[in-house]
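Two proteins follow. First one:
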Amino acid sequence: MHFIDYIPAIKGKDKWLTGNGKETNFFLKETKCKHCDANDYAMEFIDKLQELREAYDNPIKILSGCRCKYYNDLIGGSKTSAHIPDPLARAADIYVPERDIKKVYMLAISYNFNGIGLYLSGHGTKFLHIDLKKRKTSPLYWKKLPYSWYKYTTDPIKNYIEYEKEAKEYG
C-alpha cells in the first residue's frame, strides 16, 4: 500500500468533496452502507468518480457504495470487495441509462479505473461496477449476467462486445 491509499475522502454537509474542497455531485446518503451506514471512502476514488461524472456530463446513480463486511456477505459480495472499507472503500456500482453504458464504460477505462465490471440484473437492468482496488492483475474487466459465472479478462473491448452479445441473447 502507498500513503495515498490511506487518505480519506472529505465529507461535506450533504455531499462528498473532492481533494481540493470542491463539492461533488454525489450525496453522502447514496454511498453509505445499507446495513450500518458505514461510509469511509478513499479520496482518490471520490475524486475519480467526480471526474467520471464531469466527463459524462449527466447524472450517475450510485446503486451500491460502501459496504460493511456483514452486508457484503449478505448480498454475496466478494470477500475481498473494494466496497468494504479496509481501511477505505474504493468501489461503487453505478447506473446510467442503457443507451449510455458503452460511453461510461469507455470513460471509466480512460479515467484509469482498474476494475470495471458490466452487469445485467435478473430484472434486465444494466449497470457497471468501477473500482480502484489494488490487485495483481490490473486493470481487470469482467461481466456478470444472471445465472452465469463471472468472466474475467484484461481486454476491455472484448469484454464489452461479449457482454452486449450475451445480454442481447439473455433478454
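Second one, unrelated to the first:
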Amino acid sequence: MKKNRFLGFFGKFAPEKILSDAQNTIEMVGELEGTQGKQGLESEPIAAGEKGDDSGLAAEKQKSKIAAELAKRVYHQFREVDNKFYFKDEPQKIAFEVRGRKLISNSQDDRIAKAMVAICQAKGWTRLKISGDREFCRQVWLEASLCDLKTVGYQPTKQDLAELEKLSGKK
C-alpha cells in the first residue's frame, strides 16, 4: 500500500501548515486610536465623568455596538476556533487566521477580504498594511476604503478608483 506523500509530509496538521505559508496578509500599522496600543474586539470603557461629561462613554457604547454588528456579519459566514476562521459550508477549510496584529489567508475569495476588513474595523484598526496577491490586495483596499480605513501596500488603478466611487454612491 502506497503512503500518501502529501499527508506524510504535512501530517495531520496540514491546513495549519499550509496557512502558515499564506501570502495574503492584512497588518495593523501604528497604534489604535486612544488606546496606547491595546488590542482586541473590546476596548476598556471610559469612566463616566472622566472627560467632564458622558460623551466618552456614549462613544464607547457606539463603538461596541458597531463591533458587535461587524462580528455578527463575520460569524454568519464563518466559524471561529482558536483564532482560525473556517467556512461554514466547508468546515475543514480554513478561510483565514488572526495572529495578533496580523490576519492571514491563502484565498482571494471576496467574502474573506470583506470579513477580514470587518474584523480590522471591529478591533478599532484605522490603518492597514496589505500584502499578497494583487487581486486580494485590490479587494481589501476597496472594502477598507468603503469603511474609511487607510491602507498602504496597494496602489489603486483608475478602474479601482472608479469602482470605489460607484460603490460609495450606493452606500
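SUMMARY FIELD: The chain has six helices and seven strands. The first strand starts at residue 24 and ends at 28.
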